[in-house]
Amino acid sequence: MTLCAVESQLASGETARPGQAFFWLVSLLFSSLIWFTTATLIGNKDEPREKYLLIFGVLISVLIQEMFRFAYYKLLKKASEGLKTINPYEKAPSMRLLAYVSGLGFGIMSGVFSFVNTLSDSLGPGTVGIHGDPPQFFLYSAFMTLVITLLHVFWGIVFFDGCEKKKWYTLLVVLLSHLLVSALTLISPHYGLNLVLAYIIMVLMGVWAFFVSGGSCRSLKLCLLCQDKDFLLFNQRAR
Amino acid sequence: MLTFMASDSEEEVCDERTSLMSAESPTPRSCQDGRQGLEDGESAAQWRSQESEEDHEEEDPDRYVCSGVPGRPPGLEEELTLKYGAKHVIMLFVPVTLCMIVVVATIKSVRFYTEKNGQLIYTPFSEDTPSVGQRLLNSVLNTLIMISVIVTMTIFLVVLYKYRCYKFIHGWLIMSSLMLLFLFTYIYLGEVLKTYNVAMDYPTLFLTVWNFGAVGMVCIHWKGPLVLQQAYLIMISALMALVFIKYLPEWSAWVILGAISVYDLVAVLCPKGPLRMLVETAQERNEPIFPALIYSSAMVWTVGMAKLDPSSQGALQLPYDPEMEEDSYDSFGEPSYPDVFEPPLPGYPGEELEEEEERGVKLGLGDFIFYSVLVGKAAATGSGDWNTTLACFVAILIGLCLTLLLLAVFKKALPALPISITFGLIFYFSTDNLVRPFMDTLASHQLYI
């Protein structure tokens, strides 16, 4: 009974988002724990070592995030099944909706954590780039955060769909693209290249997610031309 | 809740409640109306839109009745329980979030609340000691004193309640809300004006504080629109939390938070715990527990109700601690009935049962206060780091989710503090010490994970 209750709460879309945000937070906690212990064990703090340690930390973090995404998927799956056994007539929230919401939760949490300190610093006095660093630091951070958030949403949709249809290569692709995006940020002084590549990846993932959630060229056309019966604007025009 | 909406005169309904609710009339479609009647303005709108969809699916008029009512099929009960869980989680997220936002915004902008200007008499030991051991000892001693004051106050309150000294209790509550609404608001307003360097003359100040306080007293202790009452309760919780954040020394605050959750667990779950006794006495007498001091997200009026049945106390009742409302300085009481419970289902026969509906959720003000103290302290002392504050915020919300879930499962008074505060403390310390260096290093190299 308790388990069913847990599951139903998670299965209802409303609590899925903070649930996933919490999972992201826990994944971040584990990855920083690993990074911290490794750093303490290794000991000395010379520059290249610190950089390698950081790269290691980033990779571990990406891995753990994807693991937690999978864990959340499993939890949601159990929840929907539990709900279905309790009440077979009730329409449970669809897995696609849950995928979107959970991706959003992940994305929001990740974006906020990356960006909020930068934001609060930007309110204070100072000149950006006075020591020779690029002056577009804030813009770059903002765009990067945006792309990461959107990417998490698309990754969530694609990931859950891959799990549902047992297409395991999908999970691998998501993991690799996440690693790619994070690795790209390592070449950080080259803002332009970094951002453009990240946006390209985002557009590709977005298109993939669109087709995976059941969209098609035809439905896109209907939507854009306001001829889609299910879409809001259609009802407006009919009046 | 619907019971007394139906029995009472319509005009009172129109005056006191939000316009959305007063528009509902108790028609024979009991379940639909009741459901609408019992929720607050925002969710009532949702129910309205869902009503048409749900019309065809509901054969069972008692579908949303509180589970446990005799005569209902067990599957239905489970389902109702689960429905309760998810919905009420959302209804509580908003006020808790608002309270925390107010506290964090104030802490981050108004310097007054982070300056050390002395301590409460309940925490006499200072933390300005040279050694770590001494500081720890002092904070533990402070905690012991504070907790014993709280326990004493709670027991005093329970004794008063048991011996039906209602006038005394009401007088006490009124005095403390007077103090909160007038004195603390005046101080708060003064500090905010100072921070933003806005000049305000005394007549305007007097008028503002007078209006604010008077309307607050009326809303909280008598009648007023639900939304306004909720807003005032959130504000006084925030003010109280700010006082705690200012006057509790650092380490003492963390130890007190931990100790309060343990106390809460004990007081609510042990058979002889004071909070449990309070709740049970209130249930035996079929009275709501000081409705003025619990945050409820649905109507809790008892006006005109000749005979209250326990069903009117709300499905998920989270009794608070009235003492919390009581002033912080002299009669600080126990932090919260952070209890969450569902009253035993009405043994009342007949039609009243049919009209039971999903009620709102109630959460004690003490819970609001301690959640906000945790998040506020994280904001004040977390090295100016927003990540810590956010992590604590998410942890508390998830703890609240889990607590509500347990409430839906166990259907009795449950403490709302332990799980949330535990998560909050774990996340505060781990984020501050582990995650912050990691994220800072990442940010300085502009890496994104």
UniProtKB/TrEMBL annotation, chain A:
GO CC entries: endoplasmic reticulum; gamma-secretase complex
Compartment annotation: Membrane
GO biological process: Notch receptor processing; Notch signaling pathway; protein processing
InterPro entries attached to this UniProt entry: Aph-1
UniProt entry keywords in alphabetical sequence: Membrane, Notch signaling pathway, Transmembrane, Transmembrane helix
Taxonomic superkingdom: Eukaryota
Main location: membrane
Annotated GO MF terms: protein-macromolecule adaptor activity
Residue stretches spanning the membrane: 21-42, 54-76, 97-117, 137-161, 168-187, 193-212
Coiled coil: none
Membrane topology, record value: Multi-pass membrane protein
Pfam families, sorted: Aph-1
Subunit structure of this chain's protein: Component of the gamma-secretase complex.
Similarity comment text for this entry: Belongs to the APH-1 family.
UniProt function note: Potential subunit of the gamma-secretase complex, an endoprotease complex that catalyzes the intramembrane cleavage of integral proteins such as Notch receptors.
UniProt-recorded name of the protein: Gamma-secretase subunit APH-1
Biological classification of the source: Eukaryota, Metazoa, Chordata, Craniata, Vertebrata
The encoding gene: APH1B
